[in-house]
Amino acid sequence: MERATERGTRRGAERRAEIVRSALEVIAERGYRGATLAAVAERVGLTQQGLLHYFPTKNSLLIAVLEERDQWDTGSARRDGGNVWPLDLLTSLVEYNAMRPGIVQTFSALLGESVTDDHPARTFFTQRYEKVRADMAATLRGEFGDRLPGGLTPEAAAPLVVAVMDGLQFQWLHDRDAVDMPAVFRAFVSLLGQGDEGPGVTAPAGRP
């Protein structure tokens, strides 16, 4: 027979998951600033004080939302259940992000704030980037081997790919009409497959 403490733990986990799903919905509908604790609490039928029992601050809830988002995104993009994301699926992920500006805004806002030493999201982003860089290096090695056509190792190129993905999001959030995020990322991926002498590049004198 299931003990009361086990039932309570399970129900608590289920309630937390429900709150995170509701927060995702509210963010999608109202954006980062509109995703207040009161709005999420109303969505799940709790008082704001009741919600604080599960998530004591807005930042703690938003971090849980980003963790859930990462699990969904990377889980669907893995190759053979490992840590390799095919580049074509990364492009699809960028296209998907362009359809959910509220989540992208939440990620970017928390990322910008987390650079301070005492920010509650700092550990989340530090650990996330460590893992994402390693996974991206595995992706590049799976696509190109130990060297990209331009000569970089997968480990050297991985932070560049991550920087482009996240940097594009900031530009896109500021002016979505001027920045076609999926198209720019596709162009960047095509550059990864070019060597030192890509289209329109002339070799230096004396170079074969």
Question: Which properties best describe this structure?
Answer:
elongated, mainly alpha
**Strands, total number:** 0
Percent of residues in helices comes to over 70%
Please tell me the overall pLDDT.
Answer: 85
Strand content: under 5%
Give me the strand/helix succession: HHHHHHHHH
Task: Sketch the major β-sheet.
Answer: none
Overall shape: it is elongated
3D structure, described in words:
There is one protein chain. The protein is an all-alpha fold and 208 residues long. 70% of the residues lie in helices and 0% in strands. The chain has 9 helices and no strands. It has helices at residues 4-34, 37-44, 48-54, 58-77, 87-97, 101-113, 122-144, 154-174, 181-192. Helix 1 packs across helix 2, helix 6 (101-113) packs across helix 8 and helix 7 (122-144) packs across helix 8 (154-174). The chain is elongated, with a radius of gyration of 21 Å. The termini are far apart. Residues 198-208 have low confidence and may be disordered.
